[in-house]
């Protein structure tokens, strides 16, 4: 299955004007994906999907490239370790390594947005929880594209898709992958299934999901639970699209629309930061004197 995805990635290309720079982070393969004109001080840390067992830098390079270009951000993609060779917490440890590396390079937390699709979306949420629980600075925001929030995959979900052959096959497949990733820890572990966690004090989230996905119910449930915990959540639902539809952005108009909505969200994060900075910035001496004279 890994080989099939790698072969398929041969037909995916970076968008024009996006440049690639390979690097290693403590022995882990990674890539800078740099759109022309992107500001140097902001970064999108991207964690690819694949059920924690599949996927690589190759399989997601095209998606990350177009997302980085639309958002106007340099993106750092990492090739985190996969199950069953490397079960939990290997992938989470690698995500933490990449985030801390960015901080060590001088990037400020409020200039970092973390994003991921499917298992990478679940890993994104687990990264936020791990950082919060370890009292480390959190990124400005996070984006989950059809995030895998609950590896338990409830019986209710299986029943809902039981009459749809392809969805049932997908549900049973990812349920087996979840067990391979969790290995010795319960599927209900909050850093394995973020929907099982206490979700307080997380940064703004953007979650996208299709109503035709096996993961739809879990994403909707996670969004509701996060909102009850006081987390700012933007939930965007799409109709009739398959899981991983974002990967097919060159062919599927709804994928391009979804990625443009991510760009709108990220631009809103930066705009909110700028507005907050203007509110707390003290007036200059000239302005203070003028206000004093006007008051008098």
Automatic annotation (TrEMBL):
The keyword Hydrolase applies. PROSITE patterns: LIPASE_GDXG_HIS, LIPASE_GDXG_SER. Gene3D superfamilies: alpha/beta hydrolase. Keywords: Hydrolase. The active site is at 118. One of its GO terms (molecular function) is hydrolase activity. It holds the Pfam family Abhydrolase_3. InterPro entries: AB_hydrolase_3, AB_hydrolase_fold, GDXG_lipolytic_enzyme, Lipase_GDXG_HIS_AS, Lipase_GDXG_put_SER_AS. This is Alpha/beta hydrolase. It comes from Hymenobacter algoricola.
